[in-house]
Amino acid sequence: MRWPTDETAAQRLREWLEGEGGLDAVGLDLSGADLSYGDFSESWFTEAKMVHARLVQAELYRSDAQGADLRGADLTSSSLVRVTLDDAILSGAVLDSANLVKASLCDVDATRSSCKGTRFMGASLLGVDFRSADLRDAVFDGCSFRITVDDDTKLQGITGSVFGPVTLRGGMGSRELSGAALQEWLNRRGGKVRVRGVNGFL
């Protein structure tokens, strides 16, 4: 563990290590801290600042990170099952091989994030900005899927079943893709994705 430079946050961590239950880090500045491999199940990171924090293989089951600033954070192989990340900033964050089963990501800035092999099964991805993100080999099975992408979003190898629509932004403006057009576009980019409502798929 590497303590955050903010003394209030460091003291809260010390107290938590001596007690029981989840960590209350609401509004704290945990930027630069290394919390890798820690068990933060049912903790509160609401509105916390966690810029460039390390949470490699951390357990965050049912934690609340609503509005958290996770720019550049490393969450490789972490467990974010049923975590609330609504309104969070994940720009430049690394979530490779992370588990986001049934997580909630509404109105999230995930531009330039790396989500290679990330599992989003049953997650709500509503208003997520994945422009210039790396989503190669990610799994989106059964996802509510209203995201924004661009020509720099890497989609090779993605699999699963999704609802639409997807907004594609580029130099010529933006357009919305749904249904068969969305399925064709995703699979033409190297994915193997089924879109709900296409060819009788419910």
From TrEMBL:
Entry keyword annotation includes Repeat: yes
Origin: domain of life: Bacteria
InterPro entries linked to this entry: 5peptide_repeat (IPR001646)
Keyword annotations of the record: Repeat
One Pfam assignment: Pentapeptide
Protein name in the entry: Pentapeptide repeat-containing protein
Protein species of origin: Streptomyces cellulosae
